[in-house]
Amino acid sequence: DAGVIQSPRHEVTEMGQEVTLRCKPISGHDYLFWYRQTMMRGLELLIYFNNNVPIDDSGMPEDRFSAKMPNASFSTLKIQPSEPRDSAVYFCASSLESDGGSDYGYTFGSGTRLTVV
Amino acid sequence: QKEVEQNSGPLSVPEGAIASLNCTYSDRVSQSFFWYRQYSGKSPELIMSIYSNGDKEDGRFTAQLNKASQYVSLLIRDSQPSDSATYLCALPTGRRALTFGSGTRLQVQP
Is the dihedral of CA A113, A115, B4, B7 positive or negative? Predict the structure, then answer.
């Protein structure tokens, strides 16, 4: 398996533009997570899905952020309009709920480094 | 809101020494804890998990959990320059989501 695949790796955009980040989880994984990492705030959970259904989006900073998972192999995180304070590394991660339910072995993607100027 | 506290470091140790990384948490209900390692410019990767009080060893790594003191630590024996990274402590938040600490940067000096 190729692991969790994120695209693009780097994105530079102007303030006010729409940004779409993409993620392909590991085949068969039933959980997908979107995290954001900055020096100031560390790694923050934005939203996560179970079997393509959003479970908790309380970490989404504001209405400018939205996420979808139309099928088990694809998810998007959209920011519209983007602002300089959205600059961060955005990670997607997936995991499989084992029978025991206690294995939190996330596999993270390589991340998308977003710069909003 | 569950919180996880870590000293940001950097923690600098000489090669071959024991590195001790610490994490405190605010939620007394938490039953499991995780240590992730993140190299500069890379994504986090799971290195250890611990669910019960006491020690858990895996190679050069030992995780220690003290639920009464709400304290979890990671010991790295015989530290190597390749261990230089940021170490993130994490605990569960809801259904399989994790809350991460801000991480401790470890530097192993050759």
Answer: positive
